[in-house]
Design goal:
Layout: H1 10-40, H2 44-72, H3 74-91, H4 98-126, H5 129-160, H6 163-185, H7 194-202, H8 213-225, H9 228-243, H10 250-270, H11 276-299, H12 305-336, H13 343-350, H14 352-372, H15 374-401, H16 407-414
Helix pairs in contact: 1-5, 1-6, 2-3, 2-4, 2-13, 3-4, 3-6, 4-13, 5-6, 5-10, 5-12, 8-12, 8-14, 8-15, 9-10, 9-14, 10-12, 11-12, 11-15, 14-15, 15-16
Length: 417
C-alpha cells in the first residue's frame, strides 16, 4: 500500500497543508446548507443563488489571482489567500442576512479559487516536472482523507443539530485554513516569474491564457470529464433513490468506497503518467471505463434489491478507476501545456473546469438521468467517451503551438493518438 504522505521535504509540507484545509472543506460540505438554513435563516433558493453567483465570481477572478502568484511569488500569494479563505469562513459565523452572506460567499469562493491556482504554481516551483503528477496524486489522496475526517466532524454537528454545534465546526473550518497558511509559509520561497512577466507585458498580453485557444479547448473538454464529480454527489444518489430498489444507505457506502479507493490507489495509478503521451492515453482509458460505468449503472434499474446493490457497487468500482485515470492525466496536461512563468495564470483558468462542472452538472445530470432513465446513462457515457477521445488530437494541437518547448516533448505529444 502506498504511503498517504510523500517523502519528507516540501512535498510533505504541501500534503500536510492540503490535509489541513481539506478537513475544513469536509466540514463545510456536510454542514453548510443546514447551517445557512437553520442557523442563519436563509431560504434554500437564496442559498443556491448566492453560492452560484459566488462560484461564478471566483472562477473569473481565479485567473488574475493565479497571474498575481506568478508575478509576486506563489508562496506569499498562497499564504495570503489561505488567510483570506479562513477569514471568509469566520465571517459566516456573524452573517444574518442575504447580502452579507453573498459578500462572504464571494470572498470565500474567490479566495479558494485563487488559493488552488497559487498552490499549483508553488508546487511547480518546488517539484521537478517528472515528479509533479506523483506529488499531485499524493495530494489527492490526502485531500480525500481530509474530506472524510471533516465529513465525520460535520456529521457530529448535524447529529446534535444545535446552533452551537454548527458554529463550532465552522470555527474548526476557519482554523484549518489558518493552519494551512502556517504550513505554506514554512515552504521555501519560489522566485516570481519576472522574466516571463516582462515578456508578456512587452507583447501587450495581460492574460495570455484567454488567447490560447488549444488550452481553452483542453480546459472545456476536461470540464466535461469532471461531470463525474456531481455524478457521485447528485446523479447517482438520485438514481438510487428514484430508479432502483437498492437501500438508501448505499449512497453513503458508495461515497465511502470512492473516498477510500482514491486514498489507497491514486498514487499507484498516477505512476504510469509521466508526459503528454501517457496523460492522453490515461484519459482515453478513463473514457472507456466511464462508458462502461454508465452502462452498468443503467442496468441497475428494475433489478431486485440484492442484484441492484451488486450492480451499483460494480459500477462504482469502474467509476473510481475512471476518476483516478482522468485525474492523473488531466494534472499532467494542465501543467505540461502551460508555458513557464505562467503556471499560476494557466492553473487558475484550468480550475474553472471544476466550477463549470459543478454549476452545469446538476442541470445536465438531472435532465439525462431522471428524465431519460437508462438511455440517459448511455448518452452520458458517450459524452465521456467523446470528450476523452477528443483530448488526444487537441493535446497534439496544443503542443504543436508551443514555442520553445523541448523537441522531445512535442514529439511525444504528436505520438499521442
Amino acid at each position: 500500500m502506498p504511503r498517504l504522505l510523500p517523502p519528507a521535504g516540501p512535498q510533505r509540507t504541501l500534503a500536510l497543508a492540503q490535509l489541513s484545509n481539506s478537513v475544513g472543506d469536509g466540514v463545510y460540505y456536510v454542514t453548510s446548507v443546514l447551517y445557512f438554513t437553520h442557523v442563519v435563516g436563509l431560504a434554500p433558493a437564496r442559498i443556491g443563488l448566492g453560492l452560484t453567483v459566488a462560484w461564478a465570481v471566483g472562477s473569473v477572478v481565479g485567473v488574475p489571482l493565479g497571474r498575481m502568484a506568478d508575478r509576486r511569488g506563489p508562496r506569499g500569494t498562497a499564504v495570503l489567500l489561505a488567510l483570506a479563505t479562513g477569514s471568509a469562513v469566520a465571517s459566516f459565523l456573524i452573517v444574518r442576512d442575504f447580502l452579507p452572506f453573498l459578500v462572504a460567499a464571494c470572498l470565500y469562493a474567490t479566495a479558494q479559487s485563487g488559493l488552488a491556482a497559487a498552490r499549483q504554481a508553488l508546487l511547480a516551483g518546488l517539484v521537478s516536472e517528472r515528479e509533479r503528477t506523483g506529488v499531485l496524486a499524493h495530494l489527492q489522496s490526502t485531500l480525500n482523507a481530509g474530506l472524510a475526517v471533516g465529513a465525520a466532524l460535520g456529521g457530529l454537528a448535524v447529529s446534535y443539530g444545535t446552533a452551537s454545534a454548527y458554529r463550532t465546526v465552522f470555527a474548526v473550518d476557519a482554523v484549518s485554513f489558518l493552519l494551512c497558511a502556517l504550513l505554506l509559509s514554512r515552504l521555501p520561497a519560489v522566485a516570481p516569474a519576472a522574466a516571463a512577466a516582462s515578456v508578456g507585458a512587452a507583447q501587450g498580453v495581460r492574460f495570455q491564457v484567454l488567447r490560447d485557444r488549444p488550452y481553452v479547448v483542453v480546459t472545456l473538454l476536461n470540464a466535461v470529464l469532471l461531470l463525474r464529480m456531481p455524478l457521485l454527489s447528485l446523479g447517482l444518489p438520485l438514481w438510487i433513490t428514484e430508479r432502483t430498489s437498492a437501500p438508501e444507505w448505499l449512497v453513503s457506502a458508495l461515497f465511502l468506497l470512492n473516498t477510500v479507493a482514491v486514498v489507497l490507489f491514486q498514487v499507484r495509478t498516477a505512476r504510469s503518467v509521466h508526459g503528454l503521451t501517457t496523460a492522453a492515453r490515461a484519459i482515453r482509458r478513463s473514457g472507456v471505463l466511464a462508458l462502461a460505468t454508465c452502462a452498468v449503472f443503467a442496468f441497475s434499474a428494475g433489478q431486485s434489491p440484492a442484484v441492484a446493490v451488486a450492480v451499483l457497487v460494480a459500477g462504482s468500482v469502474l467509476l473510481v478507476a475512471a476518476e483516478m485515470l482522468q485525474s492523473a492525466g488531466s494534472w499532467q496536461l494542465g501543467f505540461d501545456l502551460a508555458p513557464p512563468g505562467r503556471i499560476g495564470e494557466y492553473q487558475g483558468f484550468f480550475g474553472t473546469g471544476t466550477t463549470i462542472a459543478r454549476t452545469l452538472g446538476p442541470l445536465v445530470l438531472t435532465g439525462l438521468l431522471t428524465g431519460l432513465g437508462a438511455l440517459g446513462w448511455i448518452l452520458l457515457g458517450g459524452l465521456f467517451l467523446a470528450a476523452s477521445s477528443a483530448l488526444s488530437p487537441v493535446t497534439r494541437w496544443a503542443a504543436g503551438t508551443r514555442r520553445g518547448d523541448a523537441p522531445a516533448s512535442v514529439a511525444a505529444a504528436r505520438s499521442a493518438a
